[in-house]
From TrEMBL:
Highest taxon of the lineage: Eukaryota
Role this protein plays: Component of the cytochrome c oxidase, the last enzyme in the mitochondrial electron transport chain which drives oxidative phosphorylation. The respiratory chain contains 3 multisubunit complexes succinate dehydrogenase (complex II, CII), ubiquinol-cytochrome c oxidoreductase (cytochrome b-c1 complex, complex III, CIII) and cytochrome c oxidase (complex IV, CIV), that cooperate to transfer electrons derived from NADH and succinate to molecular oxygen, creating an electrochemical gradient over the inner membrane that drives transmembrane transport and the ATP synthase.
Single GO MF descriptor: cytochrome-c oxidase activity
Lineage: Eukaryota, Metazoa, Spiralia, Lophotrochozoa, Mollusca
GO biological process, any: mitochondrial electron transport, cytochrome c to oxygen
Location(s) in or outside the cell: Membrane
Example of a GO cellular component annotation carried by this entry: mitochondrion
Record-annotated membrane-spanning stretches: 22-45, 65-91, 111-132, 152-180
Name by which UniProt lists this protein: Cytochrome c oxidase subunit 3
Keywords: Membrane, Mitochondrion, Translocase, Transmembrane, Transmembrane helix
InterPro entries xref list: Cyt_c/ubiquinol_Oxase_su3 (IPR024791), Cyt_c_oxase_su3_dom (IPR033945), Cyt_c_oxidase-like_su3 (IPR000298), Cyt_c_oxidase_su3-like_sf (IPR035973), Cyt_c_oxidase_su3_a-hlx (IPR013833)
Protein's membrane topology: Multi-pass membrane protein
Length: 181
């Protein structure tokens, strides 16, 4: 932050390399999750096709109904995507107004308040998602040790939940930085 904002040390080459590094990181995360989905679908199709006697999910495993908590979690994530986009637009407008000095302090404060509000809602949605996922784990009829179904389910949702938790902490830090700005 000091190097880029105050010292101006980020050349166009540094900015391009930072952008490429982030794109490669996102690409690696995509392949990481694709591998888990591939494992889940591969095992489920293999179970269904083996001599017609196997079941998916395995016997004794009660699958989680997708139109209750998982659907609510999806709606919460989509809502958090909308509110973080709102926050990004508010912070961008605030910064643009500050750079151009075209508007009054009241308009700048309006964008600052919009940024704080939308970022706060996003953090709240991230906490709510984490709480819902914890309750989903607590109420599930299977564990990670029960079968391939349980282990792949908990690995996929666990890593995704960890991503949401880290993102929530990151956005909380951004909220405090915006508040102190």
């Amino acid at each position: 932050i000091v190097e880029s904002t105050f010292l101006g040390c980020h050349t166009s080459l540094v900015v391009r390399n930072l952008r490429n590094g982030m794109l490669l990181f996102i690409l690696s995360e995509i392949f990481f999750f694709v591998s888990f989905f591939w494992a889940f679908f591969y095992v489920s199709i293999g179970e269904l096709s083996s001599h017609g006697v196997s079941f998916w999910p395995p016997m004794g495993t009660k699958a989680i109904y997708p139109w209750k908590v998982p659907f609510l979690n999806t709606a919460v994530l989509l809502g958090s995507g909308a509110t973080v986009t709102w926050a990004h637009n508010a912070v961008s407008a605030h910064n643009l107004d500050m750079e151009n000095n075209k508007s009054s302090i009241l308009i700048n404060k309006k964008w600052w308040i919009h940024g704080l509000l939308s970022l706060g809602i996003t953090v709240g949605l991230g906490v709510f998602f984490t709480w819902l996922q914890f309750n989903e784990y607590y109420m599930s009829s299977f564990s990670m040790a029960d079968s391939v179904y349980g282990s792949v389910f908990f690995m996929m949702t666990g890593f995704h939940g960890m991503h949401v938790l880290v993102g929530t902490v990151f956005l909380l830090v951004c909220w405090f930085r915006l508040y102190l700005h």
